[in-house]
């Protein structure tokens, strides 16, 4: 595990950049985000920010991540602004005291905004994984509860009002569509897809049916739904269902789980690679995603995915080619059984998934993001 250190000691380790920054690109870039990748609750958003920050550092930019909660040594500077929730209130003062200035401030908008354009006297860029419109009611118990209404309205105002001068980066066409749906002008939205690492040598596929779901165990991932469907699928396919990841829902989900279900908790990248290679199918029952990064990670290992036809997942799964997009619970269960029983079709989908995933690499993501960063700075100056 990375070593935890005081924020005052977290600085980028010296390393010669591979390439100097482009003349039009901002040299000093600060990411303002909820968590560092070292946080136990980190997920796809944190991985994306880390890959962007690391890639930009390699290209010669001076990158700082200002976040809440625990953080660790990186090749770029990391500054902790306080606790899980308190850092939202301290972000502005922490930026002033510990960062000072930058050429571009990138606000990572994941529900609760920092309202950076209202207090930062310089160009800002908003990075959006997904708009939380439907997730507020899932988190707070219904669309009419005060917390759900306030959260939804505040997020929508932050993305349409507070960000009205700058550009917004969406991680998928679905997120771009959601931004347009709440009133963000089309001409201010840029799409920059997630990438994936070169997977390296593949591990062997499991000899027995093995089905894997990977992600943070929170409400909107709907692992409880997957457990219900497993009771219908297991008598047909046999085998095991692995739930990879951890989160506040784990204890409840373990109590719901039937036979042949295993919860692995958090696993290393090496173990995740092995499990995605061994798996017959990746199962992704989430209600909404920004992109569905684990779908691309599994695809790079020739493992097709079954997911619901929801925002984000309809971007990362090519229906009928790299996996199946289900339109309901019965459709999900039927696709699960059909692919589990058809080795030939599963292998064809796996090869198509591998070829599709080859289009998405982190190097391309970083280049696309840097081009948008340069555009954001240029637009602010004109």
UniProtKB/TrEMBL annotation:
Residues 206-355 form the Glycosyl transferase family domain. Residues 43-197 form the Glycosyltransferase subfamily 4-like N-terminal domain. Keywords: Glycosyltransferase, Transferase. GO terms for molecular function: glycosyltransferase activity. Residues 1-25 are annotated as: Disordered. One of its GO terms (biological process) is carbohydrate derivative biosynthetic process. The keyword Cell membrane does not apply. This is Glycosyltransferase family 4 protein. It comes from Streptomyces luteolifulvus. The lineage of its organism: Bacteria, Bacillati, Actinomycetota, Actinomycetes, Kitasatosporales.
């Amino acid at each position: 595990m990375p070593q935890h250190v005081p924020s005052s000691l977290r600085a980028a380790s010296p390393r010669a950049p591979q390439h100097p920054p482009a003349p039009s690109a901002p040299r000093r870039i600060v990411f303002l985000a909820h968590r560092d990748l070292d946080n136990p609750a980190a997920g796809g958003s944190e991985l994306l920010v880390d890959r962007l920050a690391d890639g930009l550092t390699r290209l010669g930019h001076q990158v700082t991540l200002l976040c809440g909660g625990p953080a660790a040594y990186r090749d770029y500077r990391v500054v902790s602004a306080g606790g899980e929730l308190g850092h939202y209130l301290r972000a502005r003062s922490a930026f002033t005291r510990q960062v000072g200035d930058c050429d571009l401030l990138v606000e990572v908008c994941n529900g609760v905004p920092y309202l950076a354009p209202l207090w930062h006297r310089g160009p800002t860029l908003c990075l959006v994984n997904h708009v939380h419109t439907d997730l507020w009611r899932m988190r707070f118990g219904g669309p009419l509860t005060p917390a759900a209404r306030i959260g939804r309205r505040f997020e929508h105002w932050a993305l349409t009002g507070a960000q009205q001068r700058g550009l917004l980066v969406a991680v998928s066409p679905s997120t771009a569509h959601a931004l347009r749906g709440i009133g963000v002008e089309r001409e201010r939205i840029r799409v920059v897809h997630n990438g994936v690492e070169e997977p390296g040598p593949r591990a062997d596929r499991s000899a027995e049916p093995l089905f894997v779901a990977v992600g943070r165990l929170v409400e909107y991932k709907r692992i409880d739904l997957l457990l219900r469907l497993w009771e219908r699928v297991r008598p047909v396919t046999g085998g095991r269902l692995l739930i990879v990841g951890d989160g506040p829902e784990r204890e409840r989900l373990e109590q719901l789980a039937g036979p042949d279900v295993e919860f692995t908790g958090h696993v290393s990248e090496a173990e995740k690679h092995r499990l995605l290679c061994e798996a017959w199918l990746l199962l992704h029952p989430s209600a909404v995603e920004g992109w569905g990064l684990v779908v691309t990670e599994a695809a790079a290992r020739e493992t097709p995915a079954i997911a619901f036809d929801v925002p984000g997942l309809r971007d990362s799964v090519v229906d009928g080619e790299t996996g199946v997009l289900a339109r309901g619970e019965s459709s999900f269960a039927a696709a699960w059984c059909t692919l589990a029983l058809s080795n030939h079709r599963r292998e064809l989908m796996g090869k198509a998934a591998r070829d599709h995933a080859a289009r998405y690499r982190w190097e391309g993501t970083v280049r696309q993001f840097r081009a948008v960063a340069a555009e954001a700075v240029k637009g602010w100056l004109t």
